[in-house]
Task: structure prediction
Amino acid sequence: MDKCMISSQFRGLSGISSIAEANAHADRAAQEKGENHILRGTSGCIFDDEGRFVMMKTVQRAYRQLVPEQIAPYVSELDSYLEDCMSQCFGESRPDGYIRACTVPGSTGALHHAVCGYTEPGDIVLTTDWHWGSYENLCIHNGRRMEQFHLLNDRGTFDLEDFARKVGQILKYQDSLLILLNSPANNPTGYNLSAKEWTGVVHVLKKTALSGKSVILLCDVAYLDFSGEADECRQFFRCFSDLPPNLLVLAAYTMSKGFTLYGQRAGALICIASTRREADEFVRVCQCMSKCTWGSCNRAPMHVMRALCGSPSLLKDLNRERTENRNMISRRADIFTREAKVSGLDMIPYICGFFITVPTLHAKQICSILETYNIFLVPLPQGIRIAVCSIPLRQMPGLAGSVKAAANEASTLNFQGA
Ligand code: PLP
Result:
């Protein structure tokens, strides 16, 4: 009999996500019926109201002006790029502390370094029950485990109590804990932690750090630029000022969404440390991990970043385009939210961002029914993800009603089958 030659750590894993699967179903239907006859709510990229992929014009122009030397060589760390990432990330709300950054290929690379560099093999990593699916795979692929706490309580606000309880519970058995929090514009719910909720999180972590345990908080801010007014949505970073020893904050910054450069793979892992030693160690270790994993990152987007950040007028154009896209997405979400209320469809409180989520334990079944109506959405373990970033406005009216009808159909089938 054939022996499995894959290392035991990777056996049984698959890179095919429910997102890729739903998208493949949509591709098949589009080939048969034409793209205009289906509703595709699967993609985490922005599409305009004509159904065209959006790469922001300001970014396109900067890209076209690059010369070969800015595109093709290997990159050694470009300090100007890292400075630009930090200013794009924090804006006016740069916290006080030792802040350094390391180049990574998007937030996925940042998450990889946080998981591998700041946890031991076998450790538990903590995140919210509503999270981007890759978090778990990133932990498992690297020999770590993931546990969850409730993002939201019964009042539909951040569940600080469950967070504090879980942190305490895990640190009974571990000396150190990495926590992944995706806000603002959480994927898949569109939830934002308020300034008060962030302060609550930091309070719990400071108390924990003072007790001698180590805590590393990674803020996944992938959707930052589409989460609200530029200065206002960055204010929460200020609560990471003056951290005590044993508490390290990391920000996973990416050009994927904020520059619509998803496949170009550029970002930065930024640390806010309480000591210079910790910050220096962060840079040294991250640079070494980069060399041992992807080697070098893509140089072209780094020069796009420099071109835009070096010009106040281009930056203004970029921010204007971001606002236009944010407003476009928000108009779509408004229709869904309004109609969900009218049709009695339950949804997770949406504030902003690329996705809306309908909670249900029958997501797979409901999505299969929706596919018979030529509607393609992503089934998650606890709900259905609707990518409002990719659905043209004209297709929004009636969508909540269709999801409700499919949910009713599923419950009738389940009732008959019971
Ligand atoms: N974090 C979240 C919450 C995401 O939804 C995504 C992508 O969809 C990422 C990170 C990964 O983005 P990147 O392309 O920067 O690796």
Summary: The CA atoms of residues 76 and 264 lie 17 Å apart. The longest strand covers residues 247-254. The chain is about 45% helix and 15% strand.
